[in-house]
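Lab meeting, action items carried over

1. Structure of the two-component assembly. Owner: GW. Status: complete.
Input record:
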Amino acid sequence: EDQVTQSPEALRLQEGESSSLNCSYTVSGLRGLFWYRQDPGKGPEFLFTLYSAGEEKEKERLKATLTKKESFLHITAPKPEDSATYLCAASLMFSGGYNKLIFGAGTRLAVHP
Amino acid sequence: NAGVTQTPKFQVLKTGQSMTLQCAQDMNHNSMYWYRQDPGMGLRLIYYSASEGTTDKGEVPNGYNVSRLNKREFSLRLESAAPSQTSVYFCASSEGRKETQYFGPGTRLLVL
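Predicted assembly:
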């Protein structure tokens, strides 16, 4: 069964304390790995797409990496405004050429001053 | 550009009532999607529309119907609401079937 698991469920950091979020996936035929940020009461906001093992992408304090079994979202020197839930989703082929997204449950990140 | 917009933002229904959730996008995207998000679970696809005039079932379509009114608008209808449909509903759109999906702000639905 296709599955995406994120860990930890929740993470509390002090401002400036770097850490990583994990997204492990077991899917057949990965087409891409997506990262989204979701603030409370809002919709997911697109961050990154990774397509092949070894690929890395960066945006401000965030860097996403991909291996054949998992993806990491590294947060360097986080600030309180980085507090949010981070979602990852695996894209795989579905019917009609459509790419289906399977989402993990997310990691709730809280960064304290 | 407003992106993806959804109405209403919040709704309370009684069991058995019906309602339609509205979604519109102004990005000229071809594909549109409806998801539900429940605590402790990932977003799950209810229905999608790969292009104007087509709709298909996702993972959890039971109890829902959709209409792709035109290229901009994609509505989700609950014919007879049940407490199990209490959730947050998100609409999303993408340029094509394989592209990045962009999400709306969500509709919070409570069924009593």
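2. GW to write a short summary for the group page. Key points so far: The longest strand of chain A covers residues 84-93. Chain A touches chain B through 26 residues (CB under 8 Å).
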